[in-house]
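Could you join me in thinking about how sequence relates to backbone shape in a protein? Would you write everything just below, so we can both look at the same thing?
***
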Amino acid sequence: MFTIPDTFTKRMHELYGMQGEAWSEALPSLIAECANRFGFSPEAPFSNLSYNFVLWAKLSDGKPAVLKSSFLKDELSREVSALRAYEGRGAIRVLDADEDWGMALLEGADPGTPLSAIADDAIATDIFCEVFHRLHLPAPTGSVYPSMKQHFAAIERYRERFDDGNAAAPLPESWVENAEECLVYLITTTRENLLLHGDLHHDNILRQGEEQWVVIDPKGIIGDVHFDTVQYLLNYMDRGGDCEQVLRGRIAIMAERLGLDPRRIAMWGVVRGVLEACWTIEGGGTDWHRGIQLTELFAKCLD
């Protein structure tokens, strides 16, 4: 029988107070009930738990599966909805789910090697493009997914907190203004709003079998397809050269392989860097400089 790591229970308390701690402590009985209903045997929890409790499981036919439990039930519901929308397009399959319980039983990726294990950056980016090419589809009507404007709402909240002329505003004003202008331009000039993954980086793309790669953990956002390149671009930027060189190389491959506009990719990166800085400040952190450095790096790719 598995146990809930003390570090996870402590984190749930830090994030969500007594309710989060109580949810964590109730997980074993809830998962036992879920195992009986969904037809799986629970095994060991993942070693890198963060916001969700994720557990290896085995189906009655011996195949591997993953049980994902989330305190934030609405977020898990959107993830399940996005995975089901992406079925047949290169996403891990949802085997069963209960939104009221905040539980989702997912197909296990076998061998499950992440794309980050591919050290050659050009090869990894080619694989990313293959996955990216088959994934997206038009935004479903009446969707539950946030818009791009909602996804970037932390920039608006920053502006409300530190209005014009506020001497306590930590971020360079010119970059905040630039991000705001870029965001308005990008949203108003988006030709087609698609269902985006929203967190499509190396470790959310796993090997399935000998040849296939599948995506996991979609956030589900509605917007410009160019934005879905950015999370990949932010990761492992020091591979095979300096960060600017790697970034330019990746964008060039994406533009050629996927027919994307390299300037739009770079502009989304500019806005995403400022968003990260705003998230850092909202969370009480002081290291907002990393977000601004990302913004400056993407801005160089506009030249």
